[in-house]
Amino acid sequence: MSIGERIKSARINAGLSQEALGNKLGITKMAISKYETGSVIPNSGALIALAKALEVRIEFFFRTMDVRLSKPEYRCRKALSSKDESKILGKTADWLERYLTIEEITGSEKPLMLPDRGSCRVTTLEQIEEIAVHVRQQWNLGLNPIENLMDVLEQHGIKVGVIAAPVEFDALTMWYNDDHPLIIVNKTFSGDRQRLSLAHEMGHLLLDPDEGIDIEAAAFRFAGAFLVPRATAVMELGQKRRMLDFRELYVLKRKYGMSMGAWIYRAKDLTIISDSAANRHWVEMRSRGWHKKEPGTPIGPEVPTHLELLLLRALTEHKISPSRFDELRGDESPVLAAPCQ
User: Fold this and answer.
1) If you ran DSSP here, which 8-state letter would residue 167 be given?
2) What pLDDT is attached to residue 79?
3) Lowest mean per-residue pLDDT among 38-47, 50-59, 234-243
4) Alpha-carbon span 269 to 243, nearest angstrom
5) 172 contacts: CB under 8 Å, gap ≥ 6
6) CB burial of residue 99 (10 Å; 0-12, 13-18, 19+)
7) Is pLDDT at 339 greater than 80 in this prediction?
8) Is 274 exposed, middle or buried (0-12, 13-18, 19+ CB in 10 A)?
9) Per residue in 184-210, is it b (16+ CB within 10 Å) or e — as a string?
10) Phi-psi region of 81 (alpha: psi -120 to 50; beta: other; left: phi over 0)
11) If we measure between CA atoms, which residue out of 227, 263, 239 comes closest to residue 143?
């Protein structure tokens, strides 16, 4: 990207129009337009003012890393406004540039380790149960709870970013430079909601459904099956139940990081409980307001650690300066550095 393109990207990321940015700087909309088109190159003083107004570091304008992003596929409750979409894509591009830069500095890009798409062909939803177990086996996960799903995905070459976004946004899947997948999730959501969104996006990445198979239903089935395989669900709940106790669902939520509502879906999908029993549970949850906020202490958001570890490695080995460390980390909260400072 040129300096002009980076000014435009930062402006969009900040949710500002050219006129609004000009007002913050005390210059005209036309002046901002000339900066962005490259017909006028801002001097050092103007760049410092732009960085302050756009809340970016001055180094942002001089990055050499450039990425090509595919059209995003969103998981949203409602349609995003064009302004919100632009901000999400801007934050995604900024995060990915920083990520790829530190990978280049440390020479430590993770290889992509996805199952062959032919092994993920879906003709019935029931097949997804076996596919989810196959992925777990290939990744040596066994059938136990997954402690940090973000780290598991990153260990196998799927980059995971967390950004602050409107409540309408859950997650998006994109490809960068044509053949590398990434998943972005909402930073403000609870851990169980993040994990379900991540596993759902995995379904979109992996599954190859036949015509007539609803892809959203398939991705949701995969999410449940990956987080809690059939054998695990049966071990915890039993083969057949007439009803479930909300207290046991709460315990299972804490153990597996999957919401109480998703556990009800899972039990229904596996015919552990009947459709009518599941409906009764959902009616009860709605009557208590638990469909909006489940009882008890929320599960804390997950944090991917790979980027932070690469940054700390590069800093320790004097490959980057402390100021470069801060610039490449962006607004992600420190994971490992804080307790020892």
Assistant:
1) T
2) 75
3) 50-59
4) 14
5) 72, 73, 74, 75, 88, 92, 183, 184, 201
6) buried
7) no
8) middle
9) bbbbebbbbbbbbbbbbbbbbbbbebe
10) beta
11) 227
What is the rounded distance in angstroms from the CA atom of residue 324 to the CA atom of residue 180? 25
Q: What is 254-280 written as a DSSP string?
A: HHHS--HHHHHHHHHHTTSS-HHHHHH
**How many residues are given for the chain?**
341
75 band by pLDDT with thresholds 50, 70 and 90: low
Smallest Cα–Cα separation from 298: which of 195, 169, 167? Answer: 195
The DSSP code sequence of 173-207 is: EEEETTTEEEEEEETTS-HHHHHHHHHHHHHHHH-
Instruction: Tell me the CA distances in angstroms from 170 to 5, 30, 96, 135, 305, one per residue in order.
Output: 28, 36, 18, 23, 20
pLDDT band at residue 127 using 50, 70 and 90 as cut-offs: very high
Torsion sign (Cα): 146, 147, 153, 157:
negative
Residue 234's alpha-carbon distances to 230, 257, 259, in angstroms, are: 6, 17, 17
Segment 195-249, tens digit of pLDDT: 999 999 999 999 999 999 999 999 999 999 999 999 999 999 999 999 999 999 9
Q: What is the reported pLDDT for 207?
A: 95
Distances (CA, A) of 199 to 41, 146, 176: 45, 11, 20
What are the tens digits of pLDDT across the range 148-206?
999 999 999 999 999 988 888 999 999 988 789 999 999 999 999 999 999 999 999 99
Q: How many helices (H) and strands (E) does the chain have?
A: 15, 6
Is the pLDDT at 49 greater than 70? The verdict is yes
Do 70 and 174 form a contact (C-beta atoms < 8 A)? Answer: yes
Q: Which domains does the chain have, with CATH numbers?
A: 3-62 (1.10.260.40), 84-341 (no CATH)
For the chain, the straight-line distance linking the first and the last C-alpha, in angstroms and rounded, comes to 35
pLDDT of 333 above 90: no
Answer yes or no: is pLDDT of 48 > 80: yes
Rounded Cα distance, 278 and 182, in Å: 34
